[in-house]
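pls design
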C-alpha cells in the first residue's frame, strides 16, 4: 500500500499508513524505510526524512547498505550534502549505489573536485564503476567545467572498463562542451556519434546556443529537433527566445505563428512549498491562490534583502518575454 501511495505521490496517505503500522504494534523494516524515503526526496521533506533516520538508528537498521544509500540520496536531494557525507563516513560496508548516489549529488551541486575524490575512493575500495557511475562523473565534470578531465573519463570508460557509451553519456559530453562555450566542438562530437542523436543530446546544445547567441547553429539544430519531435512546444519557444535575444522579431513572430498553427500548448511551470504537513502548489503567473497578496509582499521583502546582499537578478528572459509580446502585438 505504501509503495502504491509513493508511486502516486500521495504523501499524506503514505505517512498515515506508516503511522498506522507503528500504532498496530508492527515494526516497519528496511523495505518500508527504503520505500518511503523517496517521497522525502521528491518533496524535499527534510523533517520527515530525519524522523525516518532516527527510526533507522533506534531500530537497528543502520547497518543495512540499501537504507544508508537511501538516506544519502534523501539528504543530498534536500540540499544537506554534509548530512549525506556523514551517513557515508559512518557506513561499514558500501556498494556501487553508494558511490553513484554521492558522486551524482556532489556533481549536481557543482562540487566537481569532491565528486572526483569519491570516484578515487571507490577505486581504492576495488568497486568497479558502471555506466551510471560515468553518467554521474561526466555530469559532475560538466557542471564544474572540467573539459579535459571529462574527456579523459569518457575515454577511460571504454578503454579501461569496457563500458560502451549510450545516449546519456553522449548527452553529458555534449553538455560538457556546450556549458563551457565550445559549441562547435559539441556539434563535431554529435556528428562523430555512431548513432543518431536523440532529443536530449540536441536540446542540450540548443540551450547553449541561447546563452552564447549562436543563431546559425540554433537554426540548424532546431530543424533537426522539429523533425524528430514536432509536437513539443518547448523547443519552439526556446528558438523563439533565441531570436528575441538578438532582436530578430520577424523570426520570433514566425515561430510563434508555427506554435499557434500546430495547436501546441506549453505546459505552465509548477512550483510548490511545504508548510507544516500541507503542500501548497503554484502555477506560473497564477493569481488565484487565496493568500497571493501576502506572498507577493514577502517576495518583495526578500528581493530587497537579496539586493542589499549584492545579488543582481538576471532579467534577460523577462525582458525577452516583454519584448516578444510588444513586437507580436
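designed seq:
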Amino acid at each position: 500500500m505504501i509503495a502504491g501511495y509513493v508511486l502516486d505521490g500521495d504523501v499524506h496517505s503514505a505517512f498515515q499508513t506508516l503511522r498506522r503500522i507503528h500504532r498496530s504494534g508492527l515494526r516497519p523494516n528496511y523495505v518500508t524505510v527504503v520505500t518511503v524515503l523517496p517521497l522525502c526526496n521528491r518533496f524535499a521533506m527534510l523533517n520527515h526524512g530525519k524522523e525516518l533516520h532516527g527510526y533507522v538508528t533506534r531500530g537497528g537498521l543502520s547497518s543495512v547498505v540499501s537504507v544508508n544509500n537511501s538516506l544519502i540520496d534523501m539528504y543530498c536531494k534536500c540540499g544537506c550534502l554534509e548530512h549525506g557525507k556523514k551517513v557515508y563516513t559512518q557506513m561499514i560496508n558500501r556498494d556501487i549505489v553508494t558511490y553513484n548516489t554521492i558522486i551524482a549529488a556532489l556533481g549536481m551541486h557543482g562540487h566537481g573536485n569532491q565528486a572526483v575524490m569519491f570516484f578515487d575512493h571507490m577505486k581504492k575500495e576495488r568497486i568497479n564503476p558502471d555506466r551510471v557511475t560515468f553518467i554521474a562523473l561526466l555530469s559532475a565534470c560538466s557542471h564544474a567545467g572540467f573539459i579535459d578531465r571529462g574527456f579523459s573519463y569518457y575515454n577511460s570508460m571504454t578503454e579501461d572498463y569496457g563500458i560502451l557509451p549510450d545516449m546519456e553519456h553522449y548527452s553529458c559530453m555534449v553538455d560538457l562542451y556546450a556549458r563551457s562555450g565550445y559549441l562547435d566542438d559539441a556539434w563535431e562530437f554529435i556528428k562523430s556519434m555512431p548513432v543518431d542523436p536523440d532529443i536530449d543530446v540536441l536540446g542540450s546544445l540548443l540551450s547553449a546556443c541561447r546563452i552564447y547567441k549562436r543563431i546559425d547553429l540554433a537554426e540548424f539544430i532546431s530543424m533537426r529537433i522539429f523533425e524528430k519531435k514536432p509536437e513539443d512546444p518547448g523547443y519552439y519557444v526556446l528558438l523563439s527566445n533565441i531570436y528575441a535575444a538578438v532582436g530578430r522579431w520577424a523570426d520570433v513572430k514566425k515561430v510563434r505563428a508555427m506554435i499557434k498553427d500546430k495547436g501546441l500548448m506549453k505546459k505552465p511551470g509548477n512550483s510548490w512549498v511545504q508548510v507544516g504537513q500541507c503542500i501548497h502548489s503554484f502555477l506560473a503567473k497564477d493569481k488565484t491562490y487565496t493568500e497571493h497578496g501576502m506572498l507577493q509582499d514577502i517576495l518583495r521583502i526578500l528581493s530587497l534583502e537579496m539586493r542589499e546582499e549584492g545579488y543582481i537578478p538576471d532579467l534577460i528572459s523577462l525582458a525577452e518575454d516583454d519584448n516578444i509580446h510588444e513586437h507580436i502585438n
